[in-house]
Amino acid sequence: MIQIEKINKHYGELHVLRDIDMTVNKGEVVVLIGASGSGKSTLIRCINALEQFESGRILVDGIELLPNGQTGRDVKGTIREVRRDAGMVFQQFNLFPHMSCIDNITIGPIKVLKQSRADATELAMKLLKRVGIEDQAQKYPSQLSGGQQQRLAIARSLAMSPNLMLFDEPTSALDPEMVGEVLDVMRELAASGMTMIIVTHEMGFAQEVADRVLYMDKGAIVEEGGAKEVFGNPQNERTKSFLARVLHH
Questions:
Q1: Which helix (H) or strand (E) element contains residue 5?
Q2: Which contacts (CB < 8 Å, 24+ apart) does range 231-240 have?
Q3: Which helix (H) or strand (E) holds 187?
Q4: How far, in Å, CA of 39 to CA of 36, rounded?
Q5: What's 95-114 look like in SS3?
Q6: What pTM, to 2 d.p., does this model score?
Q7: Could you tell me the CA-to-CA distances from 103 to 95, 132, 158 in Å, in that order?
Q8: Buried b / exposed e across 199-210, counting CB within 10 Å, b at 16+?
Q9: Which of 5, 12, 67, 148 is most buried, by CB atoms within 10 Å?
Q10: Which of 125, 115, 119, 121 has its CA nearest to residue 84?
Q11: Any alpha helices (H) in 24-100, and if so which ranges?
Q12: Cα 103–104–110 angle (5° rounding)?
């Protein structure tokens, strides 16, 4: 589903991604962990073509992304294809504040996928039910709790029928009591076979849902393996000290 080969990215002098190699198979749940500033969010933004990189290449479901925003096929809208294929859920919910919940979900399928309003509305109601907020359909985002807003953001991404879901610290802006309800939706998605890449600080959740865990430090992937191996028996000293800090504080 995703193949990343030797990508590098700088912000000025700062080398934020260093020779990243990574493969994600269809149906796999891959969790990226590491301290803030280690390059995790930048990496998934590169996969979704929200950030450009300077060298290397990324294949997303057969579409090739090359350095500096180039694409491997001379097709107008290739980046749009990648973004349509890969749903992205951000820390901040990025909802349209002037639209009701149901309109937040139907706008993409109607405008981009050319669905009829009736079909898009039917799908939106199914998705609102799936994420547990069907009773909020006519409300506006500002009338929802943070957890409800994030569940709406997930439903909006799913409406585009993505083959891949990218989560960039989806619970970090939430009050603690709302984290669980968002993680429950993500658990259900993982169980349904959705390919997922998740950046998270929720270590218990990572251990539970990840097929593979990648630990990043200073822009590099330092260690990767199954959740049991990485959490239970980390091999790298940097991984050990990071996990000792986050698991026991």
A1: strand 2-11
A2: 231/203, 231/206, 231/207, 239/215
A3: helix 176-191
A4: 8
A5: CCCCCCHHHHHHHHHHHCCC
A6: 0.93
A7: 10, 17, 14
A8: bbebbebbbebb
A9: 148
A10: 115
A11: 40-47, 78-85
A12: 65
**Going residue by residue through the chain (249 aa), what tens digit of pLDDT does each one get?**
999 999 999 999 999 999 999 999 999 999 999 999 999 999 999 999 899 999 999 999 888 888 887 766 655 567 888 888 899 999 888 899 999 999 999 999 999 999 999 999 999 999 999 999 999 999 999 999 999 999 999 999 999 999 999 999 999 989 888 999 999 999 999 999 999 999 999 999 999 999 999 999 999 999 999 999 999 999 999 999 999 998 875
SS3 content of the chain, % helix, strand, coil (to 5): 40, 25, 35
Neighbours of 139 (CB within 10 A): 15
Give the single-character DSSP code of 71. Answer: B
Which residues fall within 8 angstroms of residue 42, CB to CB, at 6 or more apart?
A: 9, 16, 17, 51
> Beta-carbon neighbour count of residue 188 at 10 Å?
14
Alpha-carbon gap, residue 168 to 90, rounded angstroms: 5
Q: Which two tokens stand for residue 6?
A: 């030797």
Q: Give the C-alpha separation, 95 to 47, whole Å.
A: 21
Contacts of 210 (CB under 8 A, 6+ apart): 29, 30, 31, 198, 226, 227
- Between CA 100 and CA 93 the distance in angstroms is 14
